[in-house]
Protein backbone atom coordinates (compact mmCIF):
# COMPACT_ATOMS: atom_id res chain seq x y z
CA UNK A 1 0.00 0.00 0.00
CA UNK A 2 1.30 3.43 -0.86
CA UNK A 3 1.28 6.29 1.62
CA UNK A 4 0.05 9.75 0.75
CA UNK A 5 3.38 11.47 0.20
CA UNK A 6 4.74 8.63 -1.94
CA UNK A 7 7.93 8.13 0.02
CA UNK A 8 7.73 4.75 1.80
CA UNK A 9 5.42 1.77 1.92
CA UNK A 10 4.05 1.37 5.45
CA UNK A 11 4.15 -2.43 5.23
CA UNK A 12 7.53 -3.19 3.66
CA UNK A 13 9.23 0.19 4.15
CA UNK A 14 10.27 0.28 0.46
CA UNK A 15 10.91 3.64 -1.18
CA UNK A 16 8.04 4.49 -3.50
CA UNK A 17 8.03 7.04 -6.30
CA UNK A 18 5.99 10.15 -5.71
CA UNK A 19 4.29 9.83 -9.11
CA UNK A 20 2.87 6.34 -8.58
CA UNK A 21 3.80 3.27 -10.56
CA UNK A 22 7.14 3.18 -12.37
CA UNK A 23 7.16 3.55 -16.13
CA UNK A 24 6.27 0.26 -17.76
CA UNK A 25 7.51 -0.30 -21.30
CA UNK A 26 4.75 -0.80 -23.86
CA UNK A 27 3.85 -4.36 -24.77
CA UNK A 28 4.79 -4.99 -28.39
CA UNK A 29 1.97 -5.99 -30.71
CA UNK A 30 2.26 -9.40 -32.33
CA UNK A 31 2.45 -9.65 -36.07
CA UNK A 32 -0.07 -11.84 -37.92
CA UNK A 33 2.70 -14.38 -38.56
CA UNK A 34 3.51 -14.56 -34.83
CA UNK A 35 -0.15 -15.05 -33.98
CA UNK A 36 -0.42 -17.81 -36.57
CA UNK A 37 2.66 -19.53 -35.11
CA UNK A 38 1.21 -19.36 -31.59
CA UNK A 39 -2.07 -20.80 -32.85
CA UNK A 40 -0.19 -23.62 -34.57
CA UNK A 41 2.09 -24.40 -31.63
CA UNK A 42 -0.14 -24.84 -28.64
CA UNK A 43 0.30 -26.86 -25.49
CA UNK A 44 -2.17 -29.55 -26.55
CA UNK A 45 -0.07 -30.50 -29.58
CA UNK A 46 3.28 -30.15 -27.83
CA UNK A 47 3.91 -33.89 -27.23
CA UNK A 48 3.34 -34.76 -30.89
CA UNK A 49 5.48 -31.86 -32.08
CA UNK A 50 8.30 -32.80 -29.71
CA UNK A 51 8.32 -36.36 -31.05
CA UNK A 52 8.30 -35.09 -34.65
CA UNK A 53 11.17 -32.66 -34.02
CA UNK A 54 13.21 -35.37 -32.29
CA UNK A 55 12.58 -37.75 -35.18
CA UNK A 56 13.73 -35.19 -37.76
CA UNK A 57 16.75 -34.35 -35.59
CA UNK A 58 17.75 -37.99 -35.23
CA UNK A 59 17.23 -38.74 -38.92
CA UNK A 60 19.44 -35.82 -39.92
CA UNK A 61 22.10 -36.55 -37.34
CA UNK A 62 22.32 -40.35 -37.20
CA UNK A 63 20.83 -41.68 -40.44
CA UNK A 64 22.22 -39.27 -42.99
CA UNK A 65 25.24 -40.08 -45.13
CA UNK A 66 25.95 -36.44 -45.87
CA UNK A 67 28.38 -34.40 -43.80
CA UNK A 68 27.01 -31.85 -41.36
CA UNK A 69 28.61 -28.45 -41.73
CA UNK A 70 28.16 -25.54 -39.34
CA UNK A 71 24.81 -24.33 -40.77
CA UNK A 72 23.31 -27.80 -40.40
CA UNK A 73 24.68 -28.15 -36.87
CA UNK A 74 23.24 -24.77 -35.91
CA UNK A 75 19.86 -25.74 -37.38
CA UNK A 76 19.83 -28.98 -35.39
CA UNK A 77 20.77 -27.06 -32.24
CA UNK A 78 17.85 -24.64 -32.78
CA UNK A 79 15.54 -27.57 -33.42
CA UNK A 80 16.58 -29.07 -30.08
CA UNK A 81 15.97 -25.71 -28.41
CA UNK A 82 12.49 -25.58 -29.96
CA UNK A 83 11.47 -28.99 -28.66
CA UNK A 84 12.82 -28.14 -25.21
CA UNK A 85 10.60 -25.02 -25.19
CA UNK A 86 7.63 -27.13 -26.26
CA UNK A 87 8.37 -29.61 -23.47
CA UNK A 88 8.24 -26.77 -20.96
CA UNK A 89 4.78 -25.76 -22.19
CA UNK A 90 3.23 -28.98 -20.97
CA UNK A 91 5.94 -31.15 -19.38
CA UNK A 92 3.71 -33.84 -17.84
CA UNK A 93 2.02 -34.68 -21.16
CA UNK A 94 5.30 -34.74 -23.09
CA UNK A 95 6.98 -37.03 -20.59
CA UNK A 96 3.94 -39.34 -20.37
CA UNK A 97 3.70 -39.74 -24.16
CA UNK A 98 7.47 -40.24 -24.52
CA UNK A 99 7.32 -43.12 -22.05
CA UNK A 100 4.35 -44.67 -23.87
CA UNK A 101 5.96 -44.58 -27.31
From TrEMBL:
Protein name: Uncharacterized protein
Native organism taxonomy: Bacteria, Pseudomonadati, Bacteroidota, Flavobacteriia, Flavobacteriales
Amino acid sequence: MRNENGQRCPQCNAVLPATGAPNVPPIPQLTPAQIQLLDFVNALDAPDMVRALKLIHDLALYHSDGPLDDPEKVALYWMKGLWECLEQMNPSDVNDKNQDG
